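About this split. The held-out portion is used to measure sequence recovery: a designer receives only the structure tokens and must propose an amino acid at every position. Recovery is the fraction of positions where the proposal matches the reference. Here is one held-out target exactly as it appears in the evaluation file.
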């Protein structure tokens, strides 16, 4: 297989070499068969390997273990508080999905059987805070991994721990049965995976430290030899630190194996002016092409996501100019337009805590606490 791949790469590279261009260095992924092909076609030319691909490969066993932690934690939480976090308080109100044209469909008030008027809402301010927290938990159970650093299991554990801290503050101010149930379920689920989280957090930190070591930004200018010495010293340090724990030792050994394989091509970037550390920018050109094609041909799941986030407005043909848009909206009665705008705002507000930004999430939880402490005690269940 490797020999066949090498012949294929050589056939691809030969016409480039025949142009007689001056080649200073080559940057690639570490594809099977490419290294001997480059050595044959471009002898004595530095062949660097993408540092991002190195980190992705080094992270693979850690990312797999973290993904299993995520699955275990998610299943445990759903078993403990699943009915609670799936529940939406009150009747399902018509939302932006009812829009069928520039003139929005009218809102029809939901009437409970036997009730002559709109169903009363108990303590809406309090209910809004509870709903936000339940939605935050539901969102965190859907996090997707983005290796090598976006390890969703670790992120889920940490963000849920922030929710528990928020719940502590709320319940210290005044009791609420559903919030107490949610806190208890989250605490118990987090406790079951705490040992695994602690171990995997350290392994994830190793990856972060390796990336920081390779990153030239914010550091004195270093030669490839200097970076390599620091790199090898760090690998020796994590091997020493992991020795007492078999599972940690296995992660360290996996990182060391991948590092030894990539080491010959990781450090040219510090000695060859202008040589990037990754070829991801080049690869993004292919991804952008795929996106353009997907926008033309359609994408599985895209329609549903648009409906959930923005509503049916996004699926309607849009006027081609601002003037045409203004003319179309001018035909809509102002009260109907204001009603639709409010409906869109309320719908999108359901997603305001759907963020992976640590800073933003912490600020949002702090705002919930501030709102909660201003409520009078005993204002609802």
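Reference sequence for scoring:
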């Amino acid at each position: 297989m490797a020999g066949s791949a090498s012949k294929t790469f050589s056939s691809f590279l030969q016409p480039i070499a025949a142009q007689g261009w001056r080649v200073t260095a080559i940057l690639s992924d570490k594809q099977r068969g490419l290294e001997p092909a480059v050595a044959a076609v471009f002898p004595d030319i530095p062949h660097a390997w993408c540092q991002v691909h190195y980190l992705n490969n080094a992270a693979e066993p850690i990312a797999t273990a973290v993904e299993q932690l995520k699955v275990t934690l998610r299943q445990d939480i759903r078993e403990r508080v699943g009915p609670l976090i799936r529940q939406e308080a009150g009747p399902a109100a018509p939302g932006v999905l009812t829009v069928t044209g520039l003139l929005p469909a009218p809102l029809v008030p939901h009437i409970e059987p036997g009730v002559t008027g709109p169903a009363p809402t108990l303590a809406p301010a309090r209910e809004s805070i509870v709903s936000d927290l339940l939605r935050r938990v539901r969102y965190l159970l859907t996090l997707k991994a983005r290796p090598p650093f976006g390890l969703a299991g670790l992120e889920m554990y940490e963000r849920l721990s922030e929710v528990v801290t928020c719940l502590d503050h709320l319940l210290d101010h005044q009791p609420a049965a559903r919030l107490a149930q949610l806190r208890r379920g989250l605490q118990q689920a987090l406790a079951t995976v705490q040992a695994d989280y602690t171990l995997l957090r350290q392994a994830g930190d190793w990856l972060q430290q390796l990336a920081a070591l390779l990153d030239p930004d914010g550091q004195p200018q270093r030669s490839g030899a200097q970076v390599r010495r620091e790199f090898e010293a760090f690998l020796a340090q994590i091997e020493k630190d992991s020795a007492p724990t078999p599972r940690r030792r296995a992660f360290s050994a996996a990182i060391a194996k991948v590092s030894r394989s990539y080491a010959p091509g990781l450090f040219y970037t510090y000695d060859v002016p202008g040589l990037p550390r990754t070829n991801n920018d080049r690869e993004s050109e292919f991804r952008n092409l795929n996106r353009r094609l997907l926008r033309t041909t359609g994408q599985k799941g895209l329609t549903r996501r648009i409906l959930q986030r923005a509503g049916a407005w996004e699926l309607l043909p849009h006027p081609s100019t601002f003037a045409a848009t203004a003319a179309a909206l001018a035909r809509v009665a102002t009260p109907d337009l204001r009603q639709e705008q409010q409906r869109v705002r309320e719908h999108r507000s359901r997603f305001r805590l759907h963020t992976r930004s640590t800073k933003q999430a912490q600020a949002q939880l702090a705002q919930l606490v501030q709102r909660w402490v201003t409520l009078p005690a005993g204002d609802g269940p």
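Annotator remark: The longest strand covers residues 26-28.
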